[in-house]
Amino acid sequence: MPDLIRILIVDDEPDTVDLIQITLRTAGYMLQAAYSAEEARQILNNERFDLLLLDVMMPETSGFDLVRELREEGWKLPPFLFLTARGRAEDVKEGNALGAKGYLVKPVTRGSLIDAIEAALYESS
Question: Which pLDDT score is estimated for 1?
Fold first, then answer.
């Protein structure tokens, strides 16, 4: 993967963000983190990303709600994946209905995360 691929990680758990960053940096991605939906919104107002990696369960605004709100406001979102501990069938269905390019349940392997990112980027190009 080229090192110009920019990914915004949106997750309220710093340890999870750290692990994802370590995993994806070694694969050559450029990364930025937001620890809440509101912080993600502020970052997205000023920067472009090739992919969003979203947690579902966050305080105040879930990853699902963030996608809904941005779309209602007319945003054209880059491809996005959900990476979450919520793995119930109805959660996966909701994520897919929102247009996610993948729905990964934590914990994930390095290979499955990178495969999902590459598939989402390839499908969107």
Answer: 44
